[in-house]
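Folds abound. A case:
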Amino acid sequence: MKRIRIPVDGSQHALHAVQALLEARRYDPVAQVELLNVQVPLQAGKIGRGLSQEEIDAYHLRESRDALREPAALLHSAGLPCTEHTEIGAIAETIARVAHDPRADEIYMGSRGLGSVSALLMGSVATKVLHLTALPVTLVK
């Protein structure tokens, strides 16, 4: 049975990845799901006057809880328990690192569906994750 990591950011694309996993588990059993939310680091003094590191930490926590709430509810209502994990860092790099520790079997993630020209010019988190990990990655549009 597989151990799956699903990065979530509060978007519909992330929910689509959760829904795809729920459909896929009918024919491919899942033992463990970890939802991962990665917050981009903010630094005191750089985002506004008077914000302390404690206020920034509280902001990261609030944003992460909001991003994790709906995907976790979907998994729990389908009878598939999950763990929730929050990290702060570069998004793609953090997803790839966390997926390997503890060892995951696969990553399911939403894709914003950038066109090839946009992806070439801007890059995407999904593309970066594909390059940074040897794990199978299921991209869901």
Notes: The chain is about 45% helix and 25% strand. Confidence is low (pLDDT under 50) at residues 116-122. Residues 53-77 form the longest helix (25 residues). The domain at 2-140 is CATH 3.40.50.620 (Rossmann fold).
